[in-house]
Design goal:
Layout lengths: L1 H16 L7 E5 L10 E7 L17 E7 L2 E7 L10 H4 L1 H8 L4 E10 L9 E10 L26 H13 L5 E8 L7 H10 L3 E3 L3 H9 L3 E11 L10 H23 L7
Parallel strand pairs: 1-4, 1-5, 5-9, 6-7, 7-8
Antiparallel strand pairs: 2-3, 3-4, 5-8, 6-9
Helix pairs in contact: 1-3, 4-7
The structure holds hypoxanthine.
Length: 276
Amino acid sequence: MNHLVAELQSAVDSWRAKGRALPQTILVSGSGLAIDLEAEVLAQGELQELLPFPAHGIVGHPMEFQLLRTGSGVVLYYRGRVHGYQGLTAAQTVFLTRFGALLGARNLIMTNAAGAVDPQHQPGDLVLLEDHLNLMGKNPLEGDPPPEWGPRFPDMTVAYSRRLRKLLRHHADQRQVPLAEGIYAGMAGPSYETPAEVRMLATLGATVVGMSTVLEVIAANHLGLECAVVSVVSNLGAGLLDVPLDHEEVLEAGRSAAARLQTLFGAVLGDADLVG
Ligand code: HPA
């Protein structure tokens, strides 16, 4: 953790030294879900440029960042993310979240691809997260985060901001984008769940399952950011249909949801009310 704190500081210093604008909002898109926003591009580059450890892209993850000026202000947009299953620690997995927060961002908005645990959610559905289960077996606050980042035992009662959820709901309703609500189970991956695990997750109260998001949401809450996450359902969870899961299906569902995501996120990121 301690060397990562120094590396974060040096990434922040080098951003500032380049005279780059400071973001109010961090936007992260999941597997095959990159969005093209109407915005002025202030800067762009490879995510690797910001990271002090190697992060190899996986299929469907372009792994770039853009610094955008939108109607809501300056947005640091990560087109792709790093995952713990690439062999990273929890602190490495949330490096980019903390980087954006230390540059001054107050909001974290993300998408992810997820499997449906509740068969009420169907492939292509957008699901606004209300809460999560962290079943990854790790936590980004392990070790000694600097006390000025936030409390040792941060409250997670409203980890998914009511204000941001209301804003997303408002824009979804206005533009007639169907938006379900659900609870996300974060699993370590990278193997998909077994049918027994999907049944377990349903018993625990999850309605969707994926391999990202929860660590970033914990780190962001710790640093005082408001979070909102939309899952794009890419498949029914293992065992709900008698067919094997594959990554191509995940990417295809992302393509089918692309227009609705674009409409919703275009509206939200363009809204000056996003930055409270
Ligand atoms: N399980 C876990 N992660 C996923 C899934 C799934 O079914 N689909 C997309 N990401």
